[in-house]
Design goal:
298 residues; alpha/beta; Rossmann fold; Alpha-Beta Plaits; six-stranded mixed beta sheet; 35% helix; globular
């Protein structure tokens, strides 16, 4: 295994009676993109806050680029960029001014600041908007500026907390292309998301979280084969019919998941009897996600 950009072992974080993270193990090998998947309340954002020492774990070990946290968090933070879920840009400043502020915060040498800003503008495709005040930017442009700000000091590691939340599909594609470019440069990325397609598209490996724990980790295709098999059968019908199909499928050793107006039958290779007729499709990472984290909306 290559050196680790991030290592968490047995990490626990509570807020009073609420257990936000419960014995979490997580690794991000250097030069890879790891997707952190989980429903709302799974502990993704708390994990991100602990990696930047905004939250201090109650137990466990955290290492970022060889630095132990929270004791060496200042050294680790200088080597990473952070793209928060919430937009915290200074709306009274222009695009360029926001970046200049961060060249000072990251202590980039005076002689290198101009080049750093130009590079960040180029990465985010915002050079023609350098003099635009942030409050005049679209949501997609603001998200690109958040990423540019995180990259202005050439970090070795980037943390992205729901990088495309609230964006329309076209803008999301732009952000994906930007993240792809980072991966090609060997930047390590930890990206929390609840968009399954985003994780499949960008992540080398994914870690699925539920109730503060990692319940699965690995290459998406391997996780799909392990938990769901190669194919699924989708059966459509009214609720009473779906409940009947579920009961029959489970009786012959199949795993099932509801998908709105249908039920998906999984692990067809385990069937001990005839598989109910339906529409055949490849199993996917969404099947894995729902199987491991549950069907209830939190």
């Amino acid at each position: 295994m290559p050196p680790l950009a991030i290592r968490l072992h047995g990490v626990r974080k509570t807020y009073g009676a609420l257990v936000a993270v419960d014995g979490l193990d997580l690794v991000v090998p250097e030069g890879t993109c790891v997707g952190l998947l989980g429903p709302n309340g799974a502990g993704k954002s708390t994990t991100m806050r602990m990696l930047t020492a905004q939250a201090i774990p109650d137990a466990g070990e955290i290492e970022v680029l060889g630095h132990r946290l929270p004791g060496q968090s200042k050294s680790a933070r200088a080597l990473m960029g952070v793209v928060p879920q919430l937009d915290k840009l200074d709306t009274t400043l222009t695009v360029e001014q926001n970046l200049v502020v961060f060249t000072h915060l990251y202590r980039i040498r005076r002689t290198e600041r101009r080049a750093a800003v130009e590079r960040a503008l180029g990465i985010a495709n915002l050079a023609d908007r350098r003099d635009t005040r942030v409050d005049k930017l679209s949501g997609g442009m603001r998200r690109r500026l958040l990423i540019a700000r995180a990259l202005v000091h050439r970090p070795r590691l980037v943390l992205m907390d729901e990088p495309t939340v609230g964006l329309d599909p076209q803008v999301r594609q732009e952000i994906w292309a930007l993240i792809d470019a980072l991966r090609s440069e060997g930047v390590s990325i930890l990206m929390s998301t609840h968009y399954i397609e985003e994780a499949e598209r960008l992540a080398d490996t994914v870690t699925v979280m539920s109730h503060g724990r990692a319940v699965a980790a690995g290459v998406p295709d391997v996780l799909i084969a392990e938990h769901c098999g190669a194919e699924a059968v989708e059966v459509y019908g009214p609720p009473a019919r779906l409940a009947e199909v579920e009961a029959g499928a489970q009786a012959i050793g199949l795993r099932t998941r509801r998908t709105g107006t249908s039920v998906a039958l999984l692990r067809l290779q385990d069937a001990t009897g005839p598989v109910p007729p339906g529409e055949r499709r490849p199993a996917n990472l969404e099947d894995v996600f729902v199987l491991l984290t549950g069907e209830e909306i939190t």
